[in-house]
Amino acid sequence: EVYLVSEDCLVNLEEIIGKLAVEDTTLRTFRRAIGFGQNVKNDIVPLLVHAKDSKILDPTIRLLVNLTVPAECLLPVDLVSKSEIGRHTIYELNKLLITSKEAFVDWKTTKAVIDYMKSILEKDSKLSVQNCDSINNCLLLLRNILHVPEVNTPGETKPAHSTSLQNQILWNLFTQSVDKLLIYLMSCPQRAFWAVTMAQLVALMYKDQHISTLQKLLSCWFESTLSESSEDNESNTSPPQQCSGESSPMLTSDPTSDSSDNGDSLTLGWDHQCTQIPGSSKMNTSISKEPSEAELVTRMGTEFPTQIIVARAIKSHQIYHQTMGITCAAKHPTQPAHPHD
């Protein structure tokens, strides 16, 4: 089957965005109609996954950002919830958010967003204001999706090895090297456009993670770092290159970052490929195959994002500072002292 984008798709997207901007701010009837028709899952998300033209992708992401705005940002929840109509409105708005989050469990959705940001970064060395807004909208979409709370149905029984929607989405994001992308965006001159959004996104990635586990992983990492440093000083050897070519450490996948630092190795279900820095001829982080549900159950535990997030964040932080040190040294070389006559 081939997904074909309609010729009037762009016009329809802009029309929907326009109607959302002028909808009833009390009942939000147009937004609720989209949720009732399951349009996010059936129409908008498939368009995000299959569309390749940036002229279509950009308004699609803007529309999804609008539809995933938290209910508390749309209505005064405390006031509206006092009436029966208000409670029903809040219920339908939250239902729209939950169905949107469920649609983003599919790895293809997050990959489409990540790949779109990478395509913008590799296209132009100097980002325009429109490009910066597009990157910020991608980060806003990821932030909104991760912000959606999950509802536990009373009496519902889950399998022993089941994972939450939040953990599944985080798993997909980190297998697609979102940490490398975020580190690279931090170093961009235009980072002021998305700094606040990125801070909110990172905070949501660490949300509900056990502080004791994070502290344990940090302690193990510091101990292993000191041990490796002493061994490197004795052998005076450098580690082998992970990827050939002039690849960016911020956007290059690192196999060591997929293992927790407490000795428990987590095997990812997808193979990483080396990616190149923006401005090079090609930059692509692809997924070799989509694992079966049984493989996901056996490979993923309930708390797997904790180890991946901390291990990869620490590794990326280390690489970032090493790179910045090399850059600063190149910009400010040591000047030889001039002998006095």
UniProtKB/TrEMBL annotation:
Residues 239-265 have a biased composition (Polar residues). The keyword Cell cycle does not apply. One of its GO terms (cellular component) is replication fork protection complex. The keyword Signal does not apply. Coiled coil: none annotated. One of its GO terms (biological process) is entrainment of circadian clock. Keywords: Nucleus. GO terms for molecular function: DNA binding. It is found in: Nucleus. Residues 3-257 form the Timeless N-terminal domain. Residues 229-268 are annotated as: Disordered. This is Timeless. It comes from Culex pipiens.
